[in-house]
């Protein structure tokens, strides 16, 4: 690791507001320290936010407020998450390993970086790591890469499982910006690569994620998190689907489908979902939704299979959500 | 020298140390404390050989900067047994032959202890998933699962 | 007090569960830490290398590159090791040439590991790149039989027999590259002593190999260097040859006159040997009633540009079934990569994969149950060598596996969720039962504790335990009275730990040295007890640390008081049994698997794996079973998970880590079972034991492939078989 300065932030430091802008934020470190060892990230200074007061989960009638510093494991096993937001519980527990979930924080999970082979290998061209060097994945190994929302400069995916569930739940992210808390809808946190793939998200330097607000509706009756991966545990998703349903007399009252492993951000299209409100909760309609959701999907060779795979996965996830075992 | 002060307890003993901030818990244990029971299998959180307990939770010590562990209670494999006796987890690993080369074993044992502390295992599938963060290239998985199940049931 | 055949707990268990087992990187001395910088191109040369910034970095003690390699390492230096294949072994820093992507090009030695790692990134390297062939497929037209060893002789008339067969198949099977990846990364710790001698703690499957290499390269004989290796954190073949960390740590220690430790990173574990990518072409023909008439197996494998790595692949096809018309071909083609390296069941696992898939395809063509087809073509002698087997209880394996698995009624059991397709497959497996020369020493102390020494290794296989069991039984003492020591060049010679021959070779030597001890102690007893001088050795027994004659007992320790210390220090060298020449020795197994395939999502799972093995006398069923289970998981990994992904544009392994090179995890393993049938063998070696470390992986990938066909009707003729292969087939 490149030598760096380290500051352990206290609540008082935070009110000064300057420290964060010039530093890289350290929380659990499970992704940042990994990237620093590979030389992918080489910050000059780290601001450790571990002692800041964002390590609680608070319940209210508006929903659940997850502190950014609560670990993924503590979140998944929280009684209210298990009972009200089981899709989030399932997504978190499908991710990484028990050790990583014990250390990784909620805020950090949102900001984890892609697993693209070429991003991680500092000897390779990568527009995300080193803008302007090109994308080695487009004509290389891209089995784990995106099929939706790609650009000529980047086909990386966002690797999180938790974020796919949060997208489906339509969570909101609380961000401390210049001393004020702003609220960002989940689908506006991450971005597509476009011609600036180095930017994973829409936060500004100095921003600090403090909480994730879950809405009151948790879809505890009809939900599924389906993760398809190369081994039965401890592997990133090739494709994942968070599916949430509300059904009234066989008709879709609400439907949420978010996809992981297919784009630079969790993939969810509200306008497509809305089209199905009031329609019958049937395999045919789920298939139709799947088609619309992935319209325009494009493979790059070794990831072509994801197009049919994700369709099958969406239908399966929705059927599983509809008929809980 | 660029160092930062950090306090923690290590296997029950309080420690205060000024350390370079890029020192990971794993390197601190192995190089500074000579507690070499904790192994470096990948150094990137991908194998679990470096698993230790922080406040009772299993974590990959290779991804923890020591400076960020101020106030933590750290237990390594060397802190699991008492001076004279193996812990029940260690005894069960021997009885079930839940290893071959032994390199991943300290991490595996720490994971079983954390699994009992957490107490959230409700099925064989969940147990195997919990233990999947500890790779075993000798692939003694059947026996590791047997040992982990016994440890969980007897805890 | 029988230990042999007992489920003895590992004698090194307490060390392993407490973290006190010391592997090569766990030595407590203060070390400088060495870190290797690797090339970022695959072919060409280094035109400039600027180490100034790295040299100036805090804590850096020395930097080594091709620019400052000591002259004495350049001339008349022997870089080979006992397992070097034909060609020129890799010589680190020898010149400016780049032979593969990831080649070590500089070594940074610093006070701490972090300093060395970061300083290595400050080295600026300029290259001149050349075009190259990055993969087997890129360079098939340069494949040649000249570079490969001659396979077993062809027999009969394959062409004619193939033409006259009622059913024929011609198929191609591909295997991707696999990496050993033991959990313990390769490491060497070198202690530099005040007299300039070295103690080298190396990760190696036989300390003699490290010593041979150090002698050849650095001129360090056994008088100046001792190589030790108490514990090895898995190896699976990666430690069969000394790897470059041994060179690096030794070079730095000698030049800096200081203790130096080098531990490879996980990424660097992908920068040396591997199981090579191969392409098999199989042509098989049989008669209407399923009798195998013609068999041709051609394999093309990758090797490096500097060594001709070879393994016994195609010969297995001439061995497993009765067939009188056999054609075997083996070719190699160089790619811009490091040399491949023997990996668990080298050759056998590759050859038998192709054979056992092809046999299944032919059985299907002929409309015969795959188990029945194999029984029809059973062979009870080695047609390649024209020799009988020392023993072969494969028929008993088939029968027992059929019963345990429920093969006959397998389709009746096939109830499952609607989207899951279920399938069943099987294969035969086999592995050599060789014996190598081995030497051991034995001594007894005043407390009656025996110390037995041998330079062998325990790579997790249970050598410490099994040797202690054998000695305890042969000596008639409890196992606590045995201290078996290994992994030290100061100990008597041993074959490298590989080839599943350690029990057979070292175990037989241990048994013999114990016999010698009994004769010796009986002689001393008779010498000092004139009344018993005429007693025949056969009338004496040895139990509980005592010599028994009639109703009288004499403790070993008591007899020892009347002997010199030298008398009770016994050495023994064991030669392979005569049966090793007159007969062919092999262990055998039958494996049956159940798979499910998700017909919409392509996901392949293996809910059930059953292996039944015949491997002679099983010394320790606990450790033997564990070995078998582990190698079965390896078979699953090979079939469904592992693939070294080389981007041929760069010649670079793109998944050189444990997150993307998928070895099986705990959750991948469901119902997995192994057992042994009884097999008596009085020819293979004095113990009648055959090794089991490699047997379980052989055939398993084919069984899974065959089961996937049974489930889906699709033949996925490649490894690994991934969900995309199912969806795209």
How would you explain this protein's 3D organization?
Chain B: One of its GO terms (molecular function) is 2 iron, 2 sulfur cluster binding. Chain B: This is Xanthine dehydrogenase YagT iron-sulfur-binding subunit. Chain B: It comes from Leeuwenhoekiella polynyae. Chain B: Keywords: 2Fe-2S, Iron, Iron-sulfur, Metal-binding, Oxidoreductase. The complex is a heterotrimer of chains A (325), B (155) and C (729). Chain A is of the alpha+beta class. In chain A, 28% of the residues lie in helices and 21% in strands. Chain A contains twelve helices and eleven strands. Chain A has helices at 11-16, 32-38, 72-76, 79-84, 86-93, 98-103, 106-110, 117-120, 162-169, 270-275, 283-293, 305-322, and strands spanning 5-8, 24-26, 45-48, 57-60, 63-67, 172-177, 180-185, 208-214, 222-229, 237-248, 251-260. Helices cover 34% and strands 17% of the residues of chain B. Chain B has five helices and five strands. Chain B has a five-stranded mixed β-sheet with strand order 2-1-5-3-4, with helices on one face. In chain B, helix 2 runs antiparallel to helix 5 (141-154). The longest helix of chain B has 14 residues, at 105-118. Chain C has three domains: 18-131 and 182-265, Alpha-Beta Complex (Aldehyde Oxidoreductase, domain 3), CATH 3.90.1170; 278-434 and 581-728, Aldehyde Oxidoreductase, domain 4 (2-Layer Sandwich); 436-575, Aldehyde Oxidoreductase, domain 4. Chain C is built from 16 helices and 30 strands. In chain C, helix 5 (207-218) packs across helix 6 (244-256), helix 7 runs parallel beside helix 15 and helix 14 (621-640) crosses helix 15 (700-712).
